[in-house]
Every structure is written in C-alpha cells, then in structure tokens.
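Task card 7
Instruction: Convert sequence to structure tokens.
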Amino acid sequence: ANEFDWTNAHQGLLSEPIKSEYLTYTAMVIWAIAVVIRLLNVSSFGGSFSWSSPMDIWTVITSISTLVASIVIIVTALIAVYQLREMKRATVAQAFSTILSQLQASEVREARKTLIQINETDFSKWTPEQIQRAEIACNTYDCIAILLRRRVIDSKMVTAEWRTSITRCWEHAAPMVAAYRNDRGIDFWNDFEWLYGITKRNG
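Output:
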C-alpha cells in the first residue's frame, strides 16, 4: 500500500491486550470479597457490641484498617495497570514506526517494485541489478517478520496493509530463494516465508 491508513493503525495500538490487567482485576475482586467478609464479622456483634470492650474496639479498628489498606492497594493496582498500558502502547508505536520507515523508504519501495516485475523463473538469467534489488526487498520483509513473529506488534497491522506486496514479493522471489537455500541452508529467509504464510491465512 502506498498510502497508510493511520486510523487503522491507531485502533491497532489501542487494541493491544495486556494480560496482566486480568490478573490485577481478579486480585482486586478477591480482596474486596475479603473486606466484605471482614465487615460482616464486625456487624455480627449485633446488640452485644460495646465501645467499652477493648476486644470489640480492636476488631472495629482492624476492619477499618483493612478497608483503608484495600483502597490503597486497589488504587496502586489501577495506577500500575495504567502504566503498563502506556508502556505497551509506546512499545507498539515505536516498533510500528520503525517498520513503517523501512517499508516506505524509497530504496525499499523501488526494490519491491523491481522484484514484483521479475517473471523469469531461471535465476541464472537474472541481472545483477535485479538480484541486488530483490535481496533488499526480501531482507526487509525478513527483518520485519522477526518483529512480528515475536509479537512485538499485531502482525495484522502489517499484513493487512501490505498484503499484495508481501505475497507477490515472496512468489516472485521463489527462484532466488531456492538458489540461496541450496547454498546457505533451507532456513534462509524463513522469517519472510512465515510472513508470507500468515499473510495468506489472514486473507
């Protein structure tokens, strides 16, 4: 894609899940239940409660302290969740900005254009310029795939926007990939291959 949809990108940043939030919310609910149970213990005194009884007064003080401590913990947890969310957003934004700058670089765009226009299936007949540009295109997508594979950002943020480019580049690079894997190993550009696979699956 030549024009990037920043609206979709923004939505992608906001939709990143933070699994620790669920654990925090669960802990908060459990703590709240404990506080309620504690307060119910105080109310169970009924008419027998006496302010002159040190034991009764101590129970009330303990319950109030527990409630205050619970509020402090809940507020602290909410602040921690907010900070985690902001850190996640910053990480995603930075990673996506790096990917975007690589894909939109004029040299890389020209490299992808050249590779997609190559229809020769015999790699030995490719020109040095075609090989050089094809390598740039494949290396770029391979490096980007490393980030996506490690789930630094949602892979759909890239595959949805550059679907056509990714699929065509990999398919047109097939003769070069086969030749290089014969010399350098079958895992050469395997991250790019993974990116091609999930792009096809994501449709």
